[in-house]
Design a protein that fits this description.
This protein is an alpha/beta fold and 665 residues long. The chain has 18 helices and 20 strands. The strands form three sheets. Strands 1, 2, 3, 4, 5, 6, 7, 8 and 9 form a nine-stranded mixed β-sheet that branches. The protein starts with a strand and ends with a helix.
Length: 665
């Protein structure tokens, strides 16, 4: 059996607010003592109970929202006495559920009763958060002021944010969790990403984790409801207390809602634009307790699934989406007029669900008439829909209202009372003796309670001391990990500095060669794309007689090549083979193209140089070779024309000779 921990909590006093706490774990009840609000929150976070049970959550007053926000993930706050406006006395509920009460004025006794009622599934869970979560991905630390190094760091962080946003997006898509994404683009990356995820915190547990303290920060915020909602812990309890209904939902910008009872009669129909989830929840709750939430489309929309989970109701989805003519036919059979298509779709969904259940409900009703239990027919039908068989459902309903057997008076007889009077006097003396013993035992119990209270306080202090020690050890472990991380970053930084020093020496040499006139500066492009050309135009500009060094020209086309020809670029040096379309444009324009095995280019980061004499010689040779190739092509073209003319002339002479021969004959 999985251990289930329930904490019963009751207010003892104000200024400061103090609470009595009793724990229940798999049948064992244990008194935990008195707590202030701050210590109670710390205790709950340490123990991580499944349920916090109270008779009235509004006893927390202004601290209610703070208390709910502080609860660990997975811990439910339950009001055992019912929904606001429908609450029942705590002691009445205890008596109905066979819970023995010793002292009604003891707060610990009230806390114990709350825990025991919650263990039986009695009460309503307090819903403070929507089934929506906001995930924000942003920069984790300030980048400060500075020049190029800070710019590189900023670009690096924006790339990291973009990668993290894409990673979260992929995880949500693989898990088939619906979401909306809003991003802020910056420096070829993202400065911020914000997800609105339509799922509860529990559904995201283990999938997306928050992150703090690094270059990228991930924060997860649950979306609070406008007002508190209450959902039953067990739907069969709500069935006995509230009207059971079947609800059809048509989600969208305009939401349609229709509710019918278990006899197929319409109870409510409504539609509203931009209706929040909490408003839908409250509207349905005011009508009754939904045992079925229905939709007219297959598969079910996410909002309909969410409402079914919140109400712990069964979800009805048709085998295939209902057609418009089928919906209209259903409404004609009902004889009900609606205001818009959303109301029509919601009512059709609810009535379709009722028709699917109608044979089973009619069978239950016939059996109840035979047994004379028609008065509680609605409760029995609701329990059958929930999954109980007919016998179990009838037993559950009749057990709650089984009348007590009337005591029959005993027939009068003539009895000799003398022996009984003697026995009574003996019992009275025995009672007096037991009362004295009872008083003595009560004093002993009182003393033992004082000792137990003192020991519990010492135990709590000891727990606090151990917890503080554990926290220190965790902090030390975190600091050690931080030191290891910083040492790793320092090692990487040293490697970068060494590389930069080598690059600086080479850059100085290159600059010296440039000053002497023996070297020519070359502008470096990572790719031959419009984005990279725009970057180069903004930073240094591309001018006439510039020499460009392209690391990867893949993807370049005619338009880019024609642009560079128009700019008057003197030469192109490429790290890889140019695409054929771009090379043809450069060849036709006599713009020399070289590869790194033809020309020695020395590069440091965004800077590069080439030997001026070597470049001039290579350009001259390339242009001369191209000129020879052009002459050869022209000569071949001329010879082809002459040959074609000769062939045509011969054909013409042959044709004339044949014509003359025909004339002579």
């Amino acid at each position: 059996m999985v251990p289930i921990l329930i904490l019963g909590v009751d207010v003892i006093g104000e200024n400061p607010k103090r609470f009595a706490v009793v724990s229940w774990m798999n049948g064992r009840v244990e008194k935990k003592g008195e707590f202030t609000l701050y210590r109670l929150i710390r205790f709950i976070r340490a123990k991580r109970p499944d349920i916090i049970a109270m008779d009235n959550v509004h006893e927390l007053g202004d601290e209610l929202k703070k208390f709910i926000r502080a609860l660990p993930q997975g811990t439910k706050l339950v009001q055992v006495t019912g929904r606001p406006g429908e609450q029942r006395p705590l002691w009445t509920l205890a008596r109905e559920n066979g819970i023995r009460i010793t002292d009604k004025f003891d707060p610990h006794e009230e806390a114990k009763v709350c825990a025991l009622l919650a263990s039986k599934g009695i009460g309503y869970e307090v819903l403070a958060f929507e089934d929506e979560v906001v995930i924000k991905v942003s920069r984790g630390r300030s980048q400060g002021k500075g020049g190029w190094s800070q710019d590189r760091y900023r670009r690096r962080v924006h790339n990291l944010i973009q990668n993290k946003v894409r990673e979260i997006e992929d995880k949500l898509r693989k898990a088939e969790i619906p979401f909306d994404l809003e991003v802020e683009e910056r420096d070829y990356g993202l400065a911020r990403g914000e997800f609105k995820v339509y799922a509860s915190r529990e559904e995201l547990a283990g999938l997306i984790r928050p992150a703090h303290g690094g270059d990228v920060e991930i924060r997860i915020y649950p979306v609070e409801r406008r007002s508190l909602e209450f959902a039953p812990l067990k739907s069969e309890k709500a069935i006995g207390e509230r009207k059971s209904i079947i609800v059809g939902i048509d989600p969208g910008i305009t939401v349609g809602i229709a509710a019918i009872d278990l006899n197929g009669s319409l109870l409510a129909i409504y539609s509203e634009r931009n209706m929040a989830v909490s408003q839908i929840f409250r509207f349905i709750s005011d009508i009754g307790h939904p045992i079925i939430i229905a939709t007219d489309v297959s598969p079910a929309p996410g909002l309909v699934e969410k409402l079914a989970r919140s109400f712990k109701a069964q979800l009805f989805v048709p085998r295939e989406s209902l057609r418009v003519d089928e919906k209209n036919e259903l409404l004609r059979n009902l004889g009900i007029a609606v205001d818009d298509d959303h109301q029509r779709d919601a009512l059709a969904a609810a009535y379709k669900a009722y028709l699917r259940l109608k044979p089973k409900l009619e069978h239950v009703e016939a059996k109840l008439r035979e047994l004379g239990l028609s008065r509680r027919g609605e409760e029995v039908k609701a329990l059958v829909i929930q999954g109980y068989n007919l016998g179990e459902a009838i037993t559950k309903v009749t057990a709650r209202e089984r009348p007590k057997e009337e005591e029959k008076p005993a027939p009068e007889k003539s009895i000799d009372v003398a022996p009984y009077l003697k026995r009574i006097r003996e019992l009275e003396r025995s009672v007096e003796s037991l009362e004295r013993e009872n008083r003595e035992l009560k004093e002993i119990i009182k003393e033992q309670r004082r000792i137990i209270g003192r020991l519990e306080r010492r135990l709590i202090d000891y727990d606090d001391e151990i917890r503080a020690r554990v926290m220190k050890e965790r902090e030390l472990e975190a600091k050690i990990k931080r030191i290891e991380l910083l040492e790793k970053e320092l090692k990487e930084a040293k490697a970068i500095i060494e590389k930069l020093n080598r690059d600086l020496v080479l850059a100085k040499r290159m600059h010296l060669l440039e000053l002497k006139g023996s070297a020519l500066p070359v502008k470096v492009l990572e790719t031959l794309s419009w984005r990279e050309i725009e970057r180069a135009e903004k930073e240094t500009g591309i001018k006439k007689d510039d020499v460009l060094f392209v690391l990867n020209p893949a993807g370049a086309g005619r338009s880019i090549a024609e642009y560079l020809v128009e700019k008057g670029v003197r030469a192109i040096v490429s790290g890889k083979v140019l695409p054929n379309d771009a090379f043809k444009v450069f060849r036709e324009a006599h713009l020399p193209v070289f590869y790194t095995d033809e020309l020695d280019v020395r590069r440091v980061d965004d800077f590069a140089i080439v030997d001026r004499e070597e470049l001039e010689k290579a350009i001259a040779e390339k242009l001369a070779r191209w000129a020879e190739e052009d002459k050869e092509k022209e000569l071949q073209k001329f010879l082809r024309v002459v040959e074609e003319y000769r062939i045509e002339r011969v054909k013409e002479l042959i044709r004339k000779a044949e014509e003359e021969a025909d004339t002579k004959h």
